[in-house]
Amino acid sequence: MSPREQFTAFYTILYREIRRFMRIWIQTLVPPAITIVLYFVIFGSLIGSRIGQMDGFSYMQFVVPGLIMMAVMTNSYSNVVSSFFGAKFQHSVEELLVSPVPNYIILLGFTLGGVARGLMVGLSVTLLSLFFTELHIYNLPVMVAIVLLTAMLFSLMGFINAVYAESFDDISIIPTFVLTPLIYLGGVFYSISLLPEFWAGVSKANPVLYMVNAFRYGVLGISDINISWAFTMIIFFVVVAFLFSLHLLNSGKGLRQ
Amino acid sequence: MTSALKIRQLAKQYDGGFEALKGIDLTVEPGDFFALLGPNGAGKSTTIGVICSLVNKTSGSVEVFGHNIDTHFSLAKQKIGVVPQEFNFNNFEKVIDILITQAGYYGIPSSLARQRAEKYLKKLGIWDKRDVPSRNLSGGMKRRLMIARALVHEPELLILDEPTAGVDIELRRSMWTFLEEINQAGRTIILTTHYLEEAEQLCRNIAIIDQGVIVENTSMKSLLQTLQKETFIFDISETLDLDFALGGYGCKVIGENNLEVSLAKEQNLNALFQRLSDAGLTVTSMRNKSNRLEELFVNLVETQTDDKVEEAEEE
Ligand SMILES: Nc1ncnc2c1ncn2[C@@H]1O[C@H](COP(=O)(O)OP(=O)(O)O)[C@@H](O)[C@H]1O
Ligand SMILES: [Mg+2]
Known about the structure:
The complex is a heterodimer of chains A (257) and B (315). With 257 residues, chain A is mostly helical. Chain A contains eleven helices and two strands. The radius of gyration of chain A is 19 Å and the shape is elongated. With 315 residues, chain B is of the alpha/beta class. Chain B is 37% helix and 28% strand. Classes of the chains: A mainly alpha (257), B alpha/beta (315). Chains A and B meet through helix 1 and helix 5 of A and helix 2 and helix 3 of B. Magnesium ion binds next to helix 1 of chain B.
């Protein structure tokens, strides 16, 4: 396929992905907004007002960037895992397999579809947060870059999950048993400086910590970890996840008999 | 001239170890209307799956208009349009979106895709359903949607896997007409079926596959000449004796009023009716015992066994 045809194919996949989550917005866009607003109300306003300051900011200001990232991560992930597993389940993935689209275009299309959903939910949650607190912007490029990379990484992980999944159970196991703990323990709700030294050290093995802190740095200018180190790690994970996903697609794992 | 399809020594062993294809060879020339005929489980869908990259082959090679599907997959895939046996579109998408999206996968921009979608949906008579989610279509409409989808990038080779299974007679006829038109316009068509009648109606050349082996590959005409005998069941108004027989005909009483008669190729029905009348029997109705494909298989298998016996005798 010529580069131009490849671009058309990429755009087609991306557009179809966006059309999918817009069509079912009641399932894809509304619930995360409601969940996050509940977090704002409960952790930010009700409990947060009793917590006092965290790293020199009110608890509400501290927790909002973490909650925005939580929304981006879970939505990017679930978009790709549902869409790609759904395509496998209905066999409509065969439409792609019989076509001349190269695998990296398929992967990019699904990944950026997940990024689009992550951004969309992230943005709406950010706007909703304005009802609860004022939004600082300490470093916009860092904010944007980290959201994009994070959304990409979680989209790719959703893709890998979908490739291995053989039933609907398989697409909820990883989010429940792996992602949720990582996110809750990844510095969304607290600074790891509160933890005993040992658990602070353990927390540093959690990739989510780097994403949440780098984003919080972009918003508030504070972070538990070094920002360039955070970027290096995240980019490294994105590249590895991309190459691994591409390898899975090339091998036909879960797609071709 | 390069063949539209050239399959050499194609073998497929599924993960469980089952050998679905045992090294088949198949050649289809451009412009042909070709039937791949065989009973359920023969390996037809597996063959098609390999041709259009839905099944990983175990060994062998496949070329589509001279493009190897492994080394030049992009060129090969551009040439193929496939209508699979099972519905495989997104149930929640609208008909028109399914077509435009599919065209996009082939690099066709949406303005052109829209024109093509309109053209083929109209030809197949489902243009008025374009904004309906595909799950709300009837079975026959879904089948036609898949045909339109396979044509939207205007492939030179159209492959249909049992396109008329579960389709009512009227629609089946109109699909046949449509496929004949497409073929006359120069497109090569390969169709799998387990009805000999369908292949007979449409196809010029034919291969018969059974248990992963091609047992016959010839023109439709010469194949039909090998049909040695046909079996009919007659409903008779009189009560038959269990040991009723008609000299010269293979004949069996299968019920008080039912008679089964095998007719060899050189025998004709007129003479048979004459004999039945002479025996004082009144035929009220008749039908074919089985579909002729089954008889064809019986013939083919019998011939092969005979050959083997002869070979054994010569040794
Ligand atoms: N995924 C699979 N795993 C194992 N065996 C399979 C699979 N798909 C098909 N088969 C077997 O391969 C044989 C050929 O199947 P298929 O090509 O679908 O036949 P046909 O289309 O001629 O009815 C059948 O015996 C079938 O059970
Ligand atoms: Mg089949």
